[in-house]
TrEMBL record:
Keywords: Hydrolase, Protease, Serine protease, Signal. It comes from Nonomuraea rosea. Residues 1-29 form the signal peptide. InterPro entries: Peptidase_S8/S53_dom, Peptidase_S8/S53_dom_sf, Peptidase_S8_Asp-AS, Peptidase_S8_His-AS, Peptidase_S8_Ser-AS, Peptidase_S8_subtilisin-like, Peptidase_S8_subtilisin-rel. The keyword ATP-binding does not apply. This is Peptidase S8/S53 domain-containing protein. Coiled coil: none annotated. Pfam families: Peptidase_S8. The active site is at residues 147, 212, 391. Residues 138-422 form the Peptidase S8/S53 domain.
Length: 635
């Protein structure tokens, strides 16, 4: 029997937050019995086997618990049981789970789920370009990047890697078909080359599938080199890349809205990586961990007791912020795991116009906004690429924390985050039935004009990975979450389907007129997925001066109304054609330099039409501009 899909069905009806966060432990369980995730228990009761993380009580040995687990059922398979991890990974069935529920050596049992690897203009927007010029560069701090590894010799990142690690898992189950990506072919590797993103396992048909971590690292701490004239946010901070991915070839890829083979990350590998950061954080002076990773159902309240919470709390108590992308499902009120953990810093995406990106999850659980649309950064092969996503927003915040620490070395980790909140620009938007205000980071306001006496932290990142081996593990704090007796376990809503963690322009061959775009916006009626359309709308919103400042087209429903207006005034006609033109650009049919009529480029055609629309052109001018776009761009 193969393992079940770990994705919750989007056909389940939404319920209240209270009911969604039902207690996970059995109704008759004793208070000291292990916490068992509700979703795992439900699947096991159906007769499924589920890949699970079995967290062990302090002082107990996973290998000894593993023997009990294996004896409980012949169908149980222990996948990982290293005593140093403090947990084991195993497939769990009814008999095994029944045994685990009564084992006082076990702390919690939950699914080992998988996650997707959740500048130049953006650095100007948040003020890091001027901060760098003034001397605030993040020097003295290190940013850990838990992702898909890094292009170690990329000029944008040259001389900045202060340590490396890899934590990867294999699983032959047909649903996963997961293989290791660590360069040494083992489940873990620490030291020079461990996080190399240019290994054979990362390349599929000549395309590097492990590009994500290099892009994220460049945003956080890239330094101008080669063909680019811009920096990342903290161009002199150290970089600690940690590969936390595996290469999957089974149906899990399709369930995660991608094609096989795909690069995904097990929660258990993220746990190992966070524990490694705890071990080396003092020697390397780590200020922030960036996790542009996420997935699963929507959380409208914090997911207390969720996997990774213990590790994030431990880092938080040591002054290290764990910065996590909120996800790209387009939820107006809710975010995904692990950003839902209260101790984490959840980051949402805004565009160049400071509007929330349509693809980004948002709402009261978001701690900070940062740019996440059309972000240019490094990718493997010593090149650069423009990507979109809350994955691109999180490293802006991680880099910003390095700058703020340089300016205020006496502040605690929590106080550094609060400094960004207190000085950020207020972005007010609708979330469900209420209006929410979230701060977008603003380093011009957060930092002093310039350093006066090089106030760098006392500890400086080591220049070589040798510091990693020399670091002394620090015991985890004894204090844990307020309650470890339950594991929150929500049910999905019927909202938008998830979009890829990074959205890009399409490869359309022919333009679509407004009527055909309107058909695409109707759920299930067109040929493009809702995820793709939300991505296209975010690209249109980011480039346009009309959307959403003058006319809101930030969702499929709102875009449909623009494309099929109830009235036929000059303004509505021009809005219709403008939106169709932007969508044809996002679809890849036209580039900005494409000549749409004679010597007139798309950029010039759209720019002229938008000037009429925003400068209150006459009715005749608006209609003429609409007709031009209809005839030369959208037909």
């Amino acid at each position: 029997m193969r393992l079940r899909s770990l994705l919750a069905s989007t056909s389940v009806l939404a319920i209240t937050a209270t009911a969604a966060l039902a207690v996970a432990s059995p109704a008759q369980a004793a208070t000291d019995d292990p916490a068992v995730a509700k979703s795992l228990a439900a699947e096991v009761q159906k007769g499924e086997k589920v890949r699970a993380i079995i967290e062990i009580q302090r002082g107990q040995k996973p290998a000894e618990v593993a023997r009990t687990v294996e004896a409980a059922s012949g169908a149980t398979k222990v996948i990982s049981k290293a005593d140093s991890d403090g947990f084991l990974v195993a497939t769990v069935d009814k008999a095994t789970l029944a045994e685990l529920k009564t084992d006082d050596r076990v702390k919690a049992v939950y699914e080992d789920e998988v996650s997707k690897p959740t500048l130049d203009v953006s650095t100007k927007l948040i003020g890091s370009d001027k901060a760098n010029q003034a001397g605030w560069t993040g020097k003295g701090s290190t940013i850990a990047i838990l992702d898909t590894g890094i292009d170690r010799d990329h000029p944008f990142l040259a001389g900045r890697i202060v340590g490396e690690a890899c934590f990867s898992s294999s699983d032959p189950d047909p649903y996963y078909q997961a293989v290791l990506v660590c360069p040494n072919g083992e489940p873990s590797q620490i030291g020079v080359g461990a996080a190399d993103a240019e290994t054979a396992a990362c390349v599929v048909s000549g395309v590097n599938k492990c590009y994500h971590g290099t892009h994220v690292a460049g945003i956080a701490a890239g330094k101008k080199a080669g063909p680019v004239s811009f920096n990342g946010v903290a161009p002199e901070a150290g970089i600690l890349p940690i590969q936390v991915s595996s290469k999957f070839g089974g149906p899990i890829c399709e369930d995660q809205d991608t094609t096989a083979p795909c690069i995904l990350s097990f929660t258990s590998d993220q746990m190992r990586a966070l524990r490694h950061v705890e071990e080396v954080r003092a020697a390397l002076n780590v200020v922030a961990v960036n996790m542009s990773i996420g997935g699963g159902p929507r959380y409208q309240v914090h997911c207390n007791g969720a996997p990774l919470e213990t590790e994030i709390l431990s880092l938080k108590s040591s002054g290290v912020a764990t910065v996590i992308s909120s996800g790209n499902n387009g939820h107006e009120n809710g975010i995904v795991r692990p950003a839902c953990i209260a101790a984490a810093v959840a980051v949402g995406a805004t565009d160049d116009n400071d509007a929330p990106a349509p693809f980004g999850n948002r709402g009261p659980l978001i701690d900070l906004f940062a740019p996440g649309v059309a972000i240019d950064s490094s990718v493997p092969g010593n090149t650069f690429r423009v990507l979109n996503g809350t994955s691109m927003s999180a490293p802006h915040v991680a880099g910003a924390l390095a700058l703020v620490r340089q300016a205020y070395p006496a502040l605690s980790g929590d106080e550094l985050v609060e400094k960004l909140r207190a000085t950020g620009k207020s972005i007010t938007y609708r979330s469900g039935d209420t209006m929410v205000t979230t701060k977008r980071i603003d380093l011009t306001a957060a930092l002093p004009p310039r350093p006066t006496a090089s106030p760098t932290p006392a500890s400086t990142p080591a220049s070589t990975p040798a510091a990693t081996a020399a670091a002394t593990p620090k015991p985890s704090p004894t204090a844990g979450p307020t309650s470890r007796g339950t594991v929150s376990d929500p049910i999905t809503d019927t909202g938008p389907l998830p979009v890829p963690d990074t959205c890009e322009r399409g490869k359309g061959a022919e333009p679509l007129n407004a009527k055909r775009w309107a058909t695409e916006m109707r759920r299930g009626k067109g040929t493009l997925t809702d995820r793709t359309l939300v991505c296209y709308l975010s690209l249109a919103q980011n480039g346009s001066k009309v959307f959403p400042e003058v006319t809101d087209a930030g969702s499929l429903g709102k875009a449909y109304k623009v494309l099929v207006p109830k009235s036929r005034t000059a303004k509505t006609l021009l809005d219709r054609e403008l939106l169709a033109a932007w969508l044809n650009y996002a679809h890849g049919v036209h580039d900005g330099s494409t000549k749409v009529h004679g010597s007139t480029t798309l950029t010039k055609a759209i720019g002229s039409a938008e000037r009429y629309r925003t400068a209150k052109g006459t009715s005749a001018q608006l209609k003429k501009a609409a007709g031009y776009l209809y005839k030369h761009v959208n037909k």
